[in-house]
């Protein structure tokens, strides 16, 4: 029986619940509401918050609570708030407490259909944090005809790919295969670490990085976790200390692009050895590149992390047949760490600095010109600009600033950055497009950490 055909019965059953009717009518109403499943949960949640105590208790039992307390009613009232920020923060609070919030699973599932996408994203993350105990609820939503079934699939994927229904897995596999065959590389703005190896031997790359269980994915899906995101940043369930090794659990081995195999992510041992001295990471990264170059001949490593201006850092490492040729790393707290002579690709580039174009404008442009340019700068918080549009608008604005500075005799050299060095040495990720040669397909593979948890993550295809 479809949702559309039972909706009048749900409304009538909720009316019986609200009236506090007993006997046969309540038995009928309870049967209807249980059979309705996810379609009845929003009305039951409202009954818990707004109904009389007996009605609230009955509704709470149908939602999975042994007993509805004042705390439960308060938490649920926040989830029903008119302000999406209040709803989002309330969902986050549920996820923050992890598996202890499992009784809220059916209520949380109603947030997968929230009109605000940020609330839906937070609900997906909350399910990821609460964990596998919520899988039966998510599967129930997924098997319904509700619009929230898509978000339920995302939540299942974040918990673990093994929780996804086999039918969905088959459909996704066919879709990935079809899309991979026709996929044209798109510009990619990394917020990540990645390696470039001059090889087409993917199996050798997987062995060299101790990766297993490779699963074919599109480039769009593979790049997603390491993409600079403004309007849709990754949720805290992915990044914080409760993320259960999500950041180090998988690495993406891209298809061969212009003759280079790119590997995104950080090997497990580079994440988890914090017993060494302060410059361990610099030394370890250099050794890692040298070791890889013994097998693959030419190896580059890049890092480009955006963390709020002065928290940014960038770097690269190059090795050739067992010999380190260059290491450069810069952040604003440590400054530059350099080994070896600058690469040819570094010619004509200036050191990163905290001031950037804004500092040069302040130092060299007339006040009226500077204020005029500042008035046209793209707003970082403008949610009407998606990430690609924002990057394009920011580039146009930067070119205008450089032209204004050139008019007063200030030549602005490009800043050293991993993305620019990559463009000059291996593959320019922000230059990917129809002219990029592609061989094979990409895979997401598990690291040593990932093998404990299995594949996880919801990615656009």
Automatic annotation (TrEMBL):
Alphabetized SUPFAM superfamilies for the sequence: ARM repeat
Entries under Pfam families matching the protein: HEAT_2
Alphabetized Gene3D superfamilies for the sequence: Leucine-rich Repeat Variant (1.25.10.10)
InterPro entries, sorted: ARM-like (IPR011989), ARM-type_fold (IPR016024)
Annotated protein name in UniProt: HEAT repeat domain-containing protein
């Amino acid at each position: 029986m479809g949702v559309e055909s039972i909706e009048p019965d749900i409304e009538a059953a909720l009316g019986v619940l609200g009236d506090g009717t007993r006997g046969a009518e309540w038995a009928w109403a309870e049967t209807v509401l249980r059979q309705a499943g996810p379609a009845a949960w929003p009305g039951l949640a409202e009954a818990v918050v707004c109904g009389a105590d007996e009605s609230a208790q009955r509704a709470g039992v149908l939602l999975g609570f042994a007993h509805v307390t004042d705390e439960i009613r308060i938490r649920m009232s926040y989830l029903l708030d008119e302000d999406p920020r209040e709803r989002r923060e309330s969902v986050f609070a549920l996820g923050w407490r992890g598996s202890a919030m499992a009784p809220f699973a059916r209520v949380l599932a109603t947030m997968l259909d929230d009109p605000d996408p940020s609330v839906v994203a937070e609900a997906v993350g909350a399910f990821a944090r609460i964990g596998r105990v919520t899988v039966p609820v998510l599967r129930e939503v997924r098997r319904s005809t509700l619009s929230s079934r898509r978000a339920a699939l995302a939540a299942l994927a974040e918990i673990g790919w093994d929780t996804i229904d086999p039918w969905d897995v088959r459909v996704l596999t066919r879709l990935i295969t079809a899309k991979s065959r026709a996929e044209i590389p798109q510009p990619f703005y990394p917020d990540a670490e990645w390696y470039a190896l001059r090889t087409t031997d993917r199996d050798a790359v997987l062995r060299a990085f101790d990766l297993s269980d490779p699963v074919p994915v599109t480039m769009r899906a593979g790049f997603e976790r390491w993409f600079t995101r403004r309007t849709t940043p990754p949720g805290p369930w992915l990044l914080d200390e409760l993320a259960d090794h999500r950041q180090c659990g998988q690495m993406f081995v891209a298809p061969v692009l212009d003759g280079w195999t790119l590997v995104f992510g950080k090997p497990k041992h580079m994440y988890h050895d914090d017993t060494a001295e302060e410059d361990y990471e610099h030394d370890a990264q250099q050794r890692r590149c040298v070791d890889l170059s013994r097998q693959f001949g030419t190896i580059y490593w890049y890092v480009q992390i955006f963390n709020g201006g002065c928290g940014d850092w960038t770097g690269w490492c190059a090795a050739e047949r067992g010999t380190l040729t260059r290491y450069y790393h810069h952040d604003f707290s440590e400054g530059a760490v350099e080994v070896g002579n600058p690469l040819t690709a570094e010619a004509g580039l200036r050191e990163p600095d905290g001031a950037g174009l804004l500092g040069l404008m302040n130092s060299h442009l007339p006040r009226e010109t500077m204020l005029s340019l500042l008035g046209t700068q793209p707003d970082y918080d403008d949610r009407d600009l998606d990430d690609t549009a924002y990057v394009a608008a920011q580039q146009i604005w930067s070119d205008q600033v450089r032209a204004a500075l050139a008019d007063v005799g200030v030549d602005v050299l490009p800043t050293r950055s991993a993305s620019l060095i990559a463009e000059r040495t291996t593959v320019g990720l922000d230059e990917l497009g129809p002219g990029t040669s592609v061989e094979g397909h990409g895979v997401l593979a598990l690291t040593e950490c990932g093998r404990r948890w299995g594949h996880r993550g919801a990615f656009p295809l």
